[in-house]
Every structure is written in C-alpha cells, then in structure tokens.
Amino acid sequence: MDIALEADQLGKRYGRTWALRDCSLRLPAGRIAALVGPNGAGKSTLLHLAVGLLRPDAGAVRIFGEAPYDNPAVLPEIGFVAQDTPLYRDFTAAELVQLGGRLNKRWDAALARNRLAQLGIPPKLPVGKLSGGQRAQVALALALAKRPRVLLLDEPVASLDPLARREFLQSLMGSVAESETTVLLSSHLLADLERVCDYLIVLNAAQVQLAGAVDDLVASHRQLVGPRHDGGPIGGVNGVVRASHTDRQSTLLVRTDGPVTDPAWTVRDVGLEDVVLAYLADGATQTRHSEWGVPA
Fold this sequence. Notes:
- InterPro entries: AAA+_ATPase (IPR003593), ABC_transporter-like_ATP-bd (IPR003439), ABC_Transporter_VariousFunc (IPR051782), P-loop_NTPase (IPR027417).
- By secondary structure, the chain is of the alpha/beta class.
- It folds into two domains: 3-215, Rossmann fold, CATH 3.40.50.300; 220-292, no CATH class.
- The chain has eight helices and 13 strands.
- The longest helix is centred in the C-terminal third of the chain and has 21 residues, at 272-292.
- The two termini are 38 Å apart.
- Residues 285-296 have low confidence and may be disordered.
C-alpha cells in the first residue's frame, strides 16, 4: 500500500507553544481524507509543513517518501489551496492560467480552462472582482492543473454559502475521480465532509486523536446507555471515549472490539459526527486540565 502523506513524531513550535507535537499519521494513497479539529489544533500548521512552507522543529513529514522542505523536487507532486485562496487579485483567471504554465513544468492549461469555462468563470475579469465561491473555484482549477498526486486543501469552503460549497465540493469530487489524486481536506463542516470523504483524521491538542477509514471508524464505535458506570471493564469495549453521568445512569461513547452483550446496556449505533465530536471534546478536556496543572 502506497503512503501519500506520512508524519512521524512531527512537531512545530512557535515560541514556547507547540502547534504540533508528537504528531504521527499515515494517509494511504488514493483516499479523500477529512482533516478535522478545532481552531488552534494545528491543522494549517500540518498542511504548511506538508507542502514545505514550514520546517519541522521535531520529527518528519514526507510526501510519497520525500520531505518537501528539504527536497523541492517533490513539490510538483503537490497541489495546495490555502485557507484564504490567495490569488493575484489584479490578474484575470486567463492570465493566472497562463502564469501557471510559466511557473510549472507539468502544467495542464487545457484542464484549467475547461473547468473554469464549465463553471462560467469570466476569463477576462480580475479575480478580485469575482465572488468568494468563484475565486475558490479558480484556486482549485489552478491547483488541479499541476496534475498533483496529492492535493491539500485548507478550509477552502469555510467562507462560502451553502450553494457555493456544494458546487466546489462537486467540482472537487469530479476532478479527483478522474485523476486518482489523494486529497486531504481541512474543514469544520462535518456534514459536507461526510458526503465526500472516505478517510478521517481528527487533530486536537496538537496531536492526532483518531485516524482511519470512515466506515471502519464508525463501525467500531457505539453509544451505550445503562447503569452508572464506575470505570470497570465492559465486555466488548476496548475503551471509553466520552462519558456523561446522572445519579443513576451513564451514557458512554465507546470503542468496541466485539459485541456488547451485557443486558444492562442499551447499545446504539453512532454516526461520523458523533464520533468526531466525542474525540474533540475529549481532547479539549485534556488540554484545559493540562493548562491548569490538574488531572483530567
């Protein structure tokens, strides 16, 4: 199995604060992966390290086995759309396509022009006068015109309205289906991600909390409702991710390693959003307690 992106004990520090620390993950090639986490979790830092814009302070990050900061030869394999979709606002879309051809050895100008024509993007209007959704589509078309093996997207739809988000994601899906590009898409919008992504990475408190194929992760988690839990073992439960209690009852979101057959527990299926929010809440609790120097 080819690994498109690999991080090994990766760390990046700003002053005394670690934006990423001991971050390890392996993203198989061909996946469309969601990168999920709260603000400040290190998502943008991870993506900037992966495209060679930042140098790691610890560990390593590799794209198809090569470190992008130390080996610029791997950069043509990477497409990147930053969070604010930076473009030369005085340039037209047609001029940006032409510029891309001068800056990239492997450049598919026809692909970019065809995509922008299909989307109705005016070729002669400065991109600064386009809508936010149109600018995002221009940035995506330029990234795809590199014919990258890995496409990294840093919350490209965060500021778009629902219709523009849907059009952007549909355009993305159509493009990567044709090219078999590996995609890592950072976003807060879980409903959008659930429709398009088949792999999940949850990043919180500067570390990866969870990673794997979406179907496998959802299938291995359950919600249990039953008598107040004292922390003892439950048959079929590998670990408790999140727990809430009343005087007599506990509600647990758990990782399972087999069927939960104890009749005292009511077992319920969960969705992707339930799993993600449980891991984010757990990581946030650990961070708050560590900041105050008290046990979680």
